[in-house]
């Protein structure tokens, strides 16, 4: 099975799961675009130095989680271009979005654009991590980045956008923002010294990674996931006690904004983020319903020094990343379902190879219209295709036979009432608009309709315009379904296998009434009288005076044939 399944830590997103993805992405896009954010896409792979310089060489991302892009031997090309490629630094798959967007901000001179620059992205991220629920080695992320605004109102804007997005998908009732400040270059060094002294006293209880990080970046110890380190971190000094006046004012003002916006939050003085570029505000989003695990759905914060780390000038910035898979998990846990597709379904039915040409023309004509088109041309019989249409809950069926193809018409069948009539192809779009003007999704057929037992349909108790007798396309299908012997015998006795004039609306209506009357008079199932009545109708059509023939004459002919066959 190797090679025929998804790699560990990845998953296929199947068609039945796509409505959740669409709900999340469409809700996010709608909210952030209304707040002035513009979409940006960055390459799936970047130079490794982008992340070394931004998230830090000591971070888990750089040390343990990067996927390096391996150039295959012989794939570099030739000549000087190959030489340049072979000497350049390694390429890695994008592990997080902020660094890539910051690189693009710097590379394309966005500092010269009107500030602030507000960007969003919807991208795949790749991290070599232990797979678990909601955490994949390839995951999909929504992201917001705001460059060029220093004040706490920029932080509040990002959190407001996030909150509005959660509100749009009905998740705000248990969501809490946990907020902290990591200080800046003024107050953080003082805290680092105090923290390092405490951690040195607990060195023997720290994991090997944290013992090593003590010398380079002791704040990274506070973000360790090892249980013994988490216990030590919970007793560590908190940075909020060491904040300078500017950082305290920034945090206080942000919390006032959150109060005014009625955004649920908690001040968590132990909160840090695992990336080195954060300054001042950091936050994580927690589900209160899952408080026992304290699992973060996502997070973000301010990274005023990131652009400078990448080679630019000091630029204030704040952002967030939101895992799509984790959001979908929360929707499913709460029983929140995505909206169903309410577009009216229309089935296109072709009878015979030639008719498929016309069916494809119809599909081309209706492509891009507000309908959901269904077609199953591999099914030959009308009955099978009508059943397929009913299973798809189609409101209308467009039936095409050879005659319709020649006349540039279609048979338009209402799948709820079973009534149908011929429509010129040029007028099909308007006819569908008229029929579906007051479309109600709850009225769509919920069970397959058996074309041999349409009398069971309460919307059509008289079975008017029975599908196997009322149209050219249907008559063709009926002839195709009979054996060659039966077809030959019918041709010899009636001289007509399929009458071109059978689609006359006046004759069809009269013929349908005769069909119903015979069934009632003889107390015979309609399927039993169907074939003899077809023959009677074809024979009567040979007379030019058919329009003056009475129902009685038709009944007498069909009943005589039926009695003869019965005996």
TrEMBL record:
One record GO biological process: histidyl-tRNA aminoacylation
Cross-referenced InterPro entries: aa-tRNA-synth_II (IPR006195), aa-tRNA-synth_II/BPL/LPL (IPR045864), Anticodon-bd (IPR004154), Anticodon-bd_dom_sf (IPR036621), His-tRNA-ligase (IPR015807), HisRS-like_core (IPR041715), HisRS/HisZ (IPR004516)
Location of this chain's protein in the cell: Cytoplasm
Keywords carried by this UniProt record: Aminoacyl-tRNA synthetase, ATP-binding, Cytoplasm, Ligase, Nucleotide-binding, Protein biosynthesis
Similarity annotation: Belongs to the class-II aminoacyl-tRNA synthetase family.
Catalytic activity of the protein: tRNA(His) + L-histidine + ATP = L-histidyl-tRNA(His) + AMP + diphosphate + H(+)
Source organism (scientific name): Candidatus Berkelbacteria bacterium Gr01-1014_85
Entry protein name: Histidine--tRNA ligase
Basic and acidic residues bias locations: 479-489
Region (Disordered): 447-501
């Amino acid at each position: 099975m190797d090679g025929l399944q998804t790699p560990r830590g990845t998953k296929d997103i199947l068609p039945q799961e796509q409505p959740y993805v669409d709900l999340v992405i469409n809700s996010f896009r709608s909210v952030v675009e209304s707040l002035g954010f513009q979409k940006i896409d960055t390459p799936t792979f970047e130079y490794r130095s982008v992340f070394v310089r931004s998230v830090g060489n000591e971070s888990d991302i750089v040390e343990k989680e990067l996927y390096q892009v391996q150039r295959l031997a012989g794939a570099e090309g030739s000549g000087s271009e190959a030489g340049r490629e072979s000497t350049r630094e390694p390429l890695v798959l994008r592990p997080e979005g902020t660094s890539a967007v910051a690189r693009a901000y710097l590379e394309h001179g966005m500092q010269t654009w009107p500030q602030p620059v507000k960007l969003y992205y919807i991208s795949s991220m790749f991290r070599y991590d232990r797979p678990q629920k909601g955490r994949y080695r390839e995951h999909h992320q929504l992201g917001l980045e705001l460059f060029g605004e220093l004040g706490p109102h920029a932080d509040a804007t990002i959190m407001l956008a996030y909150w509005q997005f959660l509100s749009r998908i009905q998740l705000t009732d248990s969501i809490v923002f946990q907020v902290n400040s990591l200080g800046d270059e003024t107050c953080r060094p003082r805290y680092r010294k105090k923290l390092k002294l405490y951690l040195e006293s607990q060195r023997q209880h720290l994991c090997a990674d944290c013992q090593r990080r003590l010398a380079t970046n002791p704040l990274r110890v506070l973000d360790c996931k090892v249980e013994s380190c988490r216990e030590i971190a919970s007793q560590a000094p908190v940075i909020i006690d060491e904040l300078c006046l500017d950082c305290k004012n920034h945090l206080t003002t942000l919390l006032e904004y959150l109060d005014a916006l009625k955004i649920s939050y908690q001040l968590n003085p132990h909160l840090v983020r695992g990336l080195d570029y954060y300054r001042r505000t950091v936050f994580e989003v927690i589900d209160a319903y899952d408080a026992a695990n304290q699992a973060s759905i996502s997070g973000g914060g301010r990274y005023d020094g990131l652009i400078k780390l990448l080679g630019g000038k000091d630029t204030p910035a704040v952002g967030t990343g939101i895992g799509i898979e984790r959001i979908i998990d929360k929707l499913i846990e709460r029983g929140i379902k995505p909206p169903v597709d309410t577009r009216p379904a229309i089935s296109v039915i072709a009878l015979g190879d030639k008719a498929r040409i016309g069916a494809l023309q119809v599909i081309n004509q209706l492509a891009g219209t507000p309908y959901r088109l269904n077609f199953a041309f591999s099914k030959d019989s009308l009955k099978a295709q009508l059943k397929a249409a009913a299973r798809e809950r189609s409101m209308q069926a467009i039936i095409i036979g050879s005659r319709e193809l020649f006349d540039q018409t279609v048979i338009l069948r209402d799948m709820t009432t079973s009534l149908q009539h011929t429509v010129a192809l040029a007028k099909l779009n308007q006819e569908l608009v008229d029929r579906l003007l007051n479309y109600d999704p709850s009225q769509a057929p919920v069970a397959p309709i058996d074309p041999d037992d349409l009398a069971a349909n309460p919307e059509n108790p008289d079975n008017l315009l029975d599908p196997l007798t009322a149209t050219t396309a249907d008559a063709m299908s009926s002839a195709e379904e009979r054996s060659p012997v039966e077809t030959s015998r019918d041709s010899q006795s009636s001289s007509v296998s399929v009458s071109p004039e059978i689609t006359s609306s006046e004759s069809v209506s009269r013929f349908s009434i005769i069909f119903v009357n015979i069934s009632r008079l003889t107390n015979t199932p309609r399927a039993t009288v169907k074939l003899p009545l077809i023959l009677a109708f074809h024979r009567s059509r040979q007379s030019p005076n058919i329009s003056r023939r009475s129902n009685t004459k038709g009944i007498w002919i069909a009943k005589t044939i039926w009695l003869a066959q019965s005996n």
